[in-house]
Amino acid sequence: MKTRYALYLAPPPESDLWRFGCRVLGRDAASGAAIEGFAPEGFAPPAWREVAAEPRRYGFHATLKAPFRLRAGQTFEELDGRIRGFAEGVAAFDLGSLGVSTLRLGEGDLGFVALTPLCVPAELAALEARAHEELDAFRAPPTEAEIARRRPERFSPRQRDYLATWGYPYVFEEFRLHFTLSGPVRAPETLAPGFAAAFAREVPDPRFAVDALALFEQPDGGEFRLVRRYPLKA
Which end of the chain is more exposed for a tag (fewer CB within 10 A), N or C? Predict the structure, then answer.
């Protein structure tokens, strides 16, 4: 399997927010270190590690441009240079405070816990749209197997169209920024109070500054790791 890359928002590795997210998921995507011991009420630590297994593989982040393989003829050095130039042309902005939310996975009672912005500034949608439009030339089209794994029958017609065009169904009007904290669970709202208490305790300042882009890399189908941070224009 070829290396995949993803463009994310992620807090600095020295921040309280990064440490909180990594502790919840059980892995630090910057250092590669496993972090044991976290479990919300109702879970033992080993059971929680199973629940968090899928988001742990991706690392603590919020997606701007979903994982993709490089198009034939493109190199990492070219991608790195393009993202660097892109970041230098984007002004940093304040996302405001984050809070614990629960998001549903289609119909039924399955969902997941995430951190989401309490208010969404217009700059965020503009950044997400530009990231897709200006960097998509580096993305190889998804294979039929990759599309099938996303179970496109669950998506709306517009989401299926976006999946075919951009390789990801949640872009533009469908985009909702979130920092995932769990895998799928039943009745995720029952976990929200405990997560909110832990978040308030461990992250005294819940504000998030969008002042850098983060490039993550997944070599050979393994775990994603943080490989670059690109400062935005002050």
Answer: C
Please report the sign of the dihedral spanned by the C-alpha atoms of residue 16, residue 17, residue 18, residue 19. Answer: positive
Phi-psi sector, 98: left (phi>0), alpha (psi -120 to 50), beta: beta
SS3 9: strand
Angle, CA 118 vertex, CA 111 and CA 123 arms, to 5°:
110
Q: Specify the pLDDT at position 220.
A: 85
CATH 1.10.510.10 assigned to 4-231: no
| Tokens representing residue 19 in the block | 């440490």
Residue with tokens 């995507």: 29
User: Do the beta carbons of residue 217 and residue 3 sit within 8 Å?
Assistant: yes
202: tokens are: 């461990």
54-66, pLDDT tens digit by residue?
A: 999 999 999 999 9
Q: Report residue 220 as tokens.
A: 């050979």
Q: What's the CA gap between 185 and 179, in Å, rounded?
A: 16
What is the model's pTM?
0.94
Residue corresponding to tokens 């441009």? 65
d(CA 139, CA 136): 5
Specify which residues 200 forms β-bridges with: none
Domain ranges of the chain: 4-231
DSSP symbols for 73-108: T--HHHHHHHHHHHHHTSB-EEEEEEEEEEEE-SSS
pLDDT for position 144: 85
Contacts with 37 (C-beta within 8 Å, 6 or more apart), sequence order: 23, 45
